[in-house]
Design a protein that fits this description.
Elements (H helix, E strand, L loop, with lengths): L8 E4 L7 H5 L4 E4 L4 H14 L4 E3 L8 H14 L5 E6 L1 H12 L5 H9 L11 E5 L11 E6 L4 E6 L7 E4 L9 H17 L8 H23 L4 H21 L3 H13 L3 H4 L4 H8 L4 H11 L3 H14 L13 H13 L10 H8 L2
Length: about 375
Amino acid sequence: MWKFENPVKICFGNGFFGSVNKLIDGRPYCLVTYDEPYFMELSQKLIASAGPPESIINNITPNPDFLTLGESCRQFSNKVSKDTVIIALGGGSVIDAVKVLASSNNGFKVVQRFLETGEGEDSLGNYPIIAIPTTAGTGSEVTHWATVWDTVSQKKYSLARYALYPSHAVIDPELMLGLPKDLTISTGLDALSHALESLWNRNSNPVSANHAVFAAREMIEALPKLARDRQNLELRSRVARASLFAGLAFSNTKTALAHSVSYPITLKYNVPHGLACSFSLPKIMNSVIGEDETCDQNLRRIFGNDLDAAVSILENLLHDLDVSTKASSYGVQSEEWIELLTTALAGERGRNFIGTKERVLENFTL
């Protein structure tokens, strides 16, 4: 028995950004983006077609945390009306921040209480979201959760509510042409991790698996080419589409071990999320091969019939992108790494993983 659901209306294609005004459809809107020249230029294009927003919130930082989100929510609550639609224009950090804003109700405190205690959901806000990702990796434009960080307490939270599915996701590959190489690679690897983690996952189903297989095959083939030719719009489109399909896959399964173990590495060592959740993929895959025939069949659809060779294919991909597969390269020493893996396996995302603790630790201690 299985089910698959995703209510987001997807608009994909070059130039689709020019039609966002039709989605806003005369409603009051709040524009959330980065305080950078490129995003200010995009903002002006949107304003020219859709009219001025009620407010622009542009204090968004990578890995949005309690401190910055508190100020964003204060700005939001002071400027918007009950009919406001929120436009998320940026990468995963912007879309995650917008989901917090959509849940806020006269400030961040109600969201913080819900994150820390699980209580007070009936006090949260419900504003519609139009998500316009400018990176290809996060998948947040088609999920109903957001990653929220408490950097003071060194904790990561997931804000998860069905109401946080955006009404629309607008994926315009032209917006991604200016991405630098490092960001292109790290976000692409985040999407690859979403795809693979949704396969070795207790919540996997035939629909999510088809999305994941397509996404992984495309990302493995197109991402290295894009890293060498970043102005290639066809490659940008392929990688953006792969990221979208990976997002659709894990929107129903959530992630698993590689993501679970990545969060403390990002918090403690400031490793970009896309690298923190992907460098461990080859050995995690090696530890799960043979555990589940359906998973093995789907991995064969990606890597070919020889799954022993699949591990080398994945490892070589990362090395070709100048990504180390050793935890020590990111500041994590052997004893701490085993401790992090053990803790991650016991966490919510780790419990989605279909493999065993014994095989995981065996692969990482070889």
